Amino acid sequence: MIQRRTVLKTGAALTGALGGAGLLVPAMSSPAQATDLDPTTIPQFQQAMPVPKVLQPTRVSGTTSYYEMTMKEADAEILPGRLTRVRTFNGNFPGPLIKAVSGRRVVVKQTNGLSVPASVHLHGAHVPQSSDGSPMDLIAPGGGTKTYTYPNAQPHANLWFHDHAHHLESETVYRGLTGFYLLTDDVERSLDLPSGTYDVPIALRDARFDDSGQLVYSMGDFMKRTVLLANGRAWPYFAVAARKYRFRLFNTANLRFFTLQLSDGSAFQQIGSDGGLLEKPVDVTSVTLSPGERADIVVDFSRYAAGTRLILANTAPMLPGDPADQVGRVLQFRVTGPAVDTSSVPATLRKLPAPGSATVNRSFELSMDETGATMDAFINGKAYDMDRIDTEVEYGATEIWTVHNANVFTPHNFHIHLVQFRVLERDGKPVTSGPESGLKDTVAIPPGGTVKLQATFTGYEGTYVYHCHMFDHAAMGMMANFRVTKNPSTT
Q: Which parts of 92-202 fold into alpha helices (H)?
């Protein structure tokens, strides 16, 4: 087991670097007595990366598409030639994909066939409290059911769903309980972006295995999770034609940050983030994602000859001794040959409304014990209490939230349920363009860093949560309740 004090000695090298996520969380449980699988024995780039299966509705009406899912264990070939037990929606690993349309409801009946309670949160969605997947709104194990209603009363966005049962989500998500939810609208569909088989969602994460090929879970063992997965396969390859592709990247890891770039260092375009398209495409050579964040990119492979092989590399800062040939590689692209390409990336993608004027300013401080003496994590000095309302918000109010990471070594990030927000400032510098200028629901905050966010709380009244989306940190208490009401309490 990695000792927290040992990590602190090397963690200073990563201060201010987003790639050092999660290194300072103590292990809360010990894995079963088994020998770790040597990651160097896992063949790289031998399995094809699968594309998520599109889930078909069980019934369709004039206004609503109905789906049914069962959470259950299944076996998946994550490692070549081996089966690994995972937790899934409908037996799919990676999870299934729901394609939804703004203004058209989606209703999902979830059945929990697992041995532990679960709560399904549609991350980034604007939904009523009853369908938000609250950490304490649990579906009983062994066949319990709950029906979630998603009005889709929001613009297009790259959403995903995952377990959110408090104290359990860290392990359950690690073991696979995630899925994709792509919401589109007329604005997005009017563009000639790469589509169909050239529009590919990719879930990224890390993992650790024992010598029988089973996942090993121990909270906070970030440094031992050195096998990187793309759509549920360890270091896969993906065959691409010599044309443009749209890749929707999802960081579904518990703790790991990714900084992704092509192995030849060439540029590509970032066209979107959590809450859909940016106003204008941005030419970049890398994108950084903290847990829960998404990036929407377009890569043009027409500049490569048939037979070219490129690696999607992870260049996030590593600790001394980290295996670059493992955590530094994600997947391999194999260019096959030319293909007809009528797609294009326009100079303007969408028009976002101006943030408007805020009437309320609030401050939040994220912190956790870095001494190793406790396993405590806080927002504004308080650990999560399901029965406490930490923030009262007036329905319809536009607020500015200033969020500061008070830790010296440990990165955090910040996710707000119910709303998409705008990032106004990072460390006092205005954010007016670039990858963080669009709609967001999760934002990274390095040690000592501060972000200023603006959101309008409308659509639904009720109690929701904000928290660090590094699952282990939230499970340790870095989460709080806010209540939206037309008559907020003044106490």
A: 169-174, 186-189
Q: Which two tokens stand for residue 279?
A: 């106003």
What does the domain layout of the chain look like in residue ranges? 4-27+192-338
Q: What is the pLDDT of residues 90-140, one digit of tens each?
A: 999 999 999 999 999 999 999 999 999 999 999 999 999 999 999 999 999
Would you say residue 272 has pLDDT above 70? yes
Q: Which residues of 461-479 are buried (b: 16+ CB within 10 A; e: fewer)?
A: ebbbbbbbbbbbbbbbbbb
Which amino acid is residue 185, in one-letter code? D
Chain position carrying tokens 């090993």:
216
> What is the CB neighbour count within 10 angstroms for residue 418?
25
Of 172, 412, 435, 452, nearest in space to 292 by CA: 412
The Cα-based distances of 231 to 86, 162, 339 in angstroms read 13, 15, 24
For residue 317, name the pLDDT band (cuts at 50, 70, 90). Answer: confident
**Cα separations in angstroms, 239 against 51, 302, 312:** 11, 13, 13
Question: Can you tell me the distance from the alpha carbon of 252 to that of 289, in angstroms, rounded to the nearest whole number?
Answer: 10
CA distance 87 to 94: 10
Cis amide linkage into residue 52, ω under 30° from 0: no
Residues, the chain? 491
* Residue reference for tokens 């040992």: 6
What is the pLDDT, as a whole number, of residue 375?
83
- What tens digit of pLDDT does each residue of 183-225 get? 999 999 999 999 999 999 999 999 999 999 999 999 878 889 9
**Mean pLDDT score across all residues of the chain:** 92
Please tell me what DSSP assigns to residue 275: T
Query: Considering only CA atoms, which of 257, 222, 243 is closest in space to residue 24?
Result: 222
How do beta strands 450-456 and 442-445 pair? unpaired
Who has greater pLDDT, 126 or 167?
Answer: 126
The Cα–Cα gap between 190 and 170 comes to 39
φ, ψ of residue 483 to 5 degrees: the values are: -120, 130
The larger pLDDT score, comparing residue 13 to residue 403, is at: 403
The first and second tokens of residue 426, run together, are 């990072």
User: Given CA atoms 279, 128, 457, 475 in this order, what sign does their dihedral have?
Assistant: negative
* Closest residue by Cα to residue 212 from 310, 78, 63: 78
What is the average per-residue pLDDT within 357-378? Answer: 92
Q: What is the pTM of this model?
A: 0.93
Name the residue with tokens 């049962």: 165
- List, in order, residues 6 or more apart from 30 with CB less than 8 Å away: 1, 218
What is the average per-residue pLDDT within 223-241? 96
For the domain spanning 4-27+192-338, the CATH number is: 2.60.40.420
The residues facing 160 across adjacent strands are: 123, 180
